[in-house]
Every structure is written in C-alpha cells, then in structure tokens.
Amino acid sequence: MPFSRPSIGDLIQQQTVEISTQLNIAREQVEHSNASVIAKTQAGAVHGLHGHLAFLIDQNFEDTATIEYLRRRGAIRGIFEKAATKATGQCTVTGLDGSAVIAGTLLQSISGERFVVTIGAVILNGTATLSIESVNSGVQSNTAANTRLNFVTPIPGVESNAISGKLIGGSDDESIESYRARVLAEIREPAQGGADSDYIRWIREVPGVNVDRVWVMRKWMGSGTVGVFFTVDNGAIPSAETVEFVQDYVVDRVDAKAPITADVFILAPTPVAVPIVVNGLIPDTPTVRQAAEFELMDLFSRTANVENGNGSGKVLLSHLREAISIASGERDHVVVTPNSNVTFNAGELPIFGGVTWTQ
C-alpha cells in the first residue's frame, strides 16, 4: 500500500511518546514541560524532511515534475521548451525615388508595439518593401495586415508612416503543461520514423505556432504522400503564412528522421459551418438557450474531425440532439435543421454555425 505522509500533529504525538519512553516519565509530564518544545521542534524538522522527500519523488516522474526538473528530463530526450518568438513580415513605404530605409530603422504601431527593419530597401517608382521584425517577443507582436506603422525617427524623402503586411510568428513562452504533454508523448509514443504520432509531434514542436489539433491523412494525394491538417489557438484555422511556415519545418524533420522520405502536404482545413435550427425548446429561456449553445460548441470543439473521404468528419444528428438534451434546465426540443447526418467533402472541417430558435 502507498506510504501515508504523517501530519505535523501525528509527528508531535510520536515525538512526545518517544521522549516519554526515553526519559521514563509520564506522557502528560512531557506535554506540560519544556520537553514539549523539544517534541514540537523535532516534529517540525521531521515534517520538513518528509516534505522534501515527497518533492523529490515527484521529480522522478515527468507527469509530476516541476518545471526545472521537467526541463532536465526533457533535455535528456532532446526536447526543449519553445521560447517566445517575434513576429516577422513586411511593410510598404512610400516616398521619393532614391531615398533609402536602412536595416535597424525602428517603426512603431499605434498600440506601441515596435518593429525593426531587418532588410532595408531603396524607394523605386515611389514605393519600397521592407522586411521587419518585432522588437519584443510574444503574441502581442502579431499584427494585422494594413496596420499603420510610424517611423520613430523621420527619414528624409520617406513618408512618416508605413503600411504593414500580415506580421505573424509571435508567440509567448510555451506553457509548462504544453511542454509536459510533448515530453510525455515522446515517452508514450517514441519516434518510429514516420508514424502518425511522429507527424503530430513534429507539428506541435514548431516554434511560434500554438498548434491545437492535428489530423494525419495517409495517401492524401496518392501513394507515398501524407496530408497533415491542423488548427491553432483553440480551433482557429491557420493562415496561409502559418501553413507555409509549418510546411517548411515539418518537411525538414521528415527528410532528417524518416527512413523513406514521404511527400508531405501541410494543410489548413476548410471550415464548413453547420447551422442548427431548434423548435419548441422547453423551457425557452435565455439561460437554457445559452446552456444549449455552450454544449453544442463544446461538442464541435471535442469531436469535429477533418473529413478524410471515408466519413471521418460526419456530424451525427443524434449527437446534436444529445448535446442539447444535456444542457442544464432543458426538458424538450426538436432539431429541425439538420434533419439527418451531415456529410462533408475531403479536407473540410465542420464548425458550429450557430442556433436559430423557433416556436
């Protein structure tokens, strides 16, 4: 049976009995004399040792180790935390032909995020395209396309602001639980030179990309090909730039670690909304409606799959009914739309399309 760590109270009692025995005096005499201080002091010391031993035991196992020990155990296997990364991309400037913007020039967005020019350019035909990178790492450095960036220091012959393209790749330091999951995956599913679990591992370790779910499709484009679909940030569809970045990373891993090189296609799922019409909800209150919508969203986030051509993405009508039925307070309802199981084309991912309530 497992060892039960004694409480501080148990240890005080043990020390009291021990002192009583060694000094051959009554236990009550120990409790009402200076000897009780000794009992409590020793119990505290022993309790601390028990705590340290419990701590050390946890560090022996990857699923309970604290971050410092987990890093060491992961490093032994060649698995390292993904450090925070910076957003990169391009921006366009306008001005007089021949005017130059050199590397190292700083720009700043209205939100205060700063970017540095990594590859400068000379304006030709009124415009020039610069490669830029955020000064600080983190998701906050990602910037939408067509964002206005102002030069921190004016440049002669160049307009004071630039227009960004989509700046992506910025991410925070990997969370301990995300890192722990990757270390445990290596233990539970060791590399096999191109197994499905390998593709999942490689795509999850891509720096700067918070991968959510991954689907590996064998023979996606015929024999010798593998299609790998993924979502990011709690089910979001990745951008074309993110897909290209992940493609380059995973292909490098395949070339280096797979014994027989496969043609790998990294793909973003095609989202297809599934609208739902529900009639006769009982009781039809805002609270019950909200609970039902929550259960439906949870259903899609947990069970929705990319269609592989053999029905893997099918949304079952019975599951939709069940999700609404388990909503807190719901007593009855009728799902009008869809009126049968919903099927999809290969590569499509069903997503929650909202609920229309009717009476």
List the helices and strands and how they pair.
Layout: H1 8-23, H2 27-31, H3 35-59, H4 67-76, E1 88-94, E2 100-101, E3 106-109, E4 114-119, E5 121-122, E6 127-134, E7 148-151, E8 161-164, H5 176-188, H6 196-204, E9 211-218, E10 225-232, H7 240-257, E11 263-267, E12 270-282, H8 286-303, H9 317-325, E13 332-337, E14 348-358
Parallel strand pairs: 10-11, 12-14
Antiparallel strand pairs: 1-6, 1-8, 2-5, 3-4, 3-7, 4-6, 7-8, 9-10, 12-13
By DSSP, the count of extended strands is 14
Q: What gross morphology would you assign?
A: extended
Number of helices: 9
Tell me the fraction of residues in β-strands, as a range.
15-25%
Written as H for each helix and E for each strand, in order along the chain, the element string is HHHHEEEEEEEEHHEEHEEHHEE
How far do the termini sit from each other?
59 Å
Report the C-alpha radius of gyration, rounded.
30 Å
| Approximate helicity band | 25-40%
Mean pLDDT: 91
User: Could you describe the largest sheet, including whether it forms a barrel?
Assistant: 6 strands, antiparallel, barrel
Structural class assignment? alpha+beta
Q: What is the topology, as strand order, of the major beta sheet?
A: 1-6-4-3-7-8
Low-confidence stretches: none
